[in-house]
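Bench log. Compound arrived from synthesis this morning; before running ITC I wanted a structural hypothesis for how S-adenosylmethionine sits in the protein. Inputs:
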Amino acid sequence: MTPRLARVCATCLSHKINLRITSLARIQWVGTGPKSPDGDEDGSGAPVPSGPTIPPFSRSASRFGRRPLSPLERVSQMLPQESLSEEVWELREEKTREDYKDTETQTPETLKEDPDMHEDDESVLNQGKEVAHVLPEERVMCFGEVVLAEYRRKRRLELQKMFQLEKGCKLGSSWGSVAHDAIQGCHAGTVLRTSLGLPMLIRRPSLEEFTLFMKRGPAIAYPKDANAMLMMMDVNEGDCVLESGSGSGAMSLFLSRAVGSSGSVLSVEVREDHHRRAVLNYERWRSSWSLRSGKEWPENVHFHLGDLINAAPLLAGRSFNSVALDMINPHLALHTVVPHLHTGGVCAVYQANITQIIDLMEGLRCSTLPLVYERIIEVQYRDWLLAPSLKKDGSFHQRRKSPDEEATESENDEANDEGKGHERAAHFPFGSVPYIARPHPEQNGHTAFLVKLRKISR
Ligand SMILES: C[S@@+](CC[C@H](N)C(=O)[O-])C[C@H]1O[C@@H](n2cnc3c(N)ncnc32)[C@H](O)[C@@H]1O
């Protein structure tokens, strides 16, 4: 890790900037192969859902004293993954394998014997094997589909990468590579071994994950907020909805699913590059969906390039059950939009800053529009840590018995219990293991304020 990148990493951690990212901060390098898999220059999205990419940092590396990078390696790690040739990928993999061997020789025991390193890895792999029963209608993953690779260690998410399966390509990471050809033909949810022998879960992304990982133009409406907006707007199948701006197309996708094949969405965007990005993301989801399900995703979003404020001719003769606005100065668009909103319908507004909400409220106060403000909310999720409490050697702690419980147990039973300290989870009876349970130290920060406005008849 370069000193400059180390500083950025340390600053991010100390300021708790976009805390979800820190859980991915140990990603050293990831790529999906020698070329961009989908041809739209994005490589199927960044490895990190939002915010800056955090430089390499690996606890295992520091723990086992991984050697510092050479200047050439540092520069190579900063290059876009798509620009690397097949040879560079081979060399990288070779080097990672060597590094991995080095760490093995530097530890007193092999990594395999270190429960801290591998117990969970193995259990993940075994879980994958147990779920071998597939239903007849389940389709295997195929080339062209967008999939998600996940590597967890000690229940901690170390790598999450979305990419498109391409013949001959390879998913590369600091934890080894997996050939796309090996993924093709497997059922989603299969655990495969990387070239370094580590278990990598390969599955299909949910729509939420797709929107978080897809290539972005502007910031997206975060799924938690988009979900709340759908509730505010009471979007139903068959509805006709107006949205602006299209941005990166995340809200468009959620609306598309909510209104279904009998509904429609008109998505208006003023910037051409954002308009193109939204269309690309929408089309990529649709094509991946038809490959994974064998069914067509409804083609129910019409993306229009133009300014919503001057869109009266576009909206002429049309009416909408609800409206979603995620754009700058939404109050300036209300006079164009409100005449086309059903009476009793909701216009939901997404704004990042409370000062923008004040502008909106002030705009409403100064207008004669038949809109009433109902509520302003901020949607906050709180992540929790919940896991059995482990000792340093990876075995379970045992719940301390009360004197009464101890008195009722025979001496023999007690002796047996002592011997169980190093056994695996299945040998501990239900309720015998204490848990840690507390709010996760890494929480997501603020995303947006949501305003619910309703059209009334005066
Ligand atoms: C934050 S982004 C929207 C993100 C989108 N909701 C998503 O989930 O991906 C805001 C977008 O509004 C667009 N915009 C701003 N003013 C506009 C206007 N007057 N008419 C249409 N689009 C506008 C911007 O160009 C930008 O792409």
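What the model suggests: The mean pLDDT is 78. The longest strand covers residues 341-351.
ITC booked for Thursday regardless.
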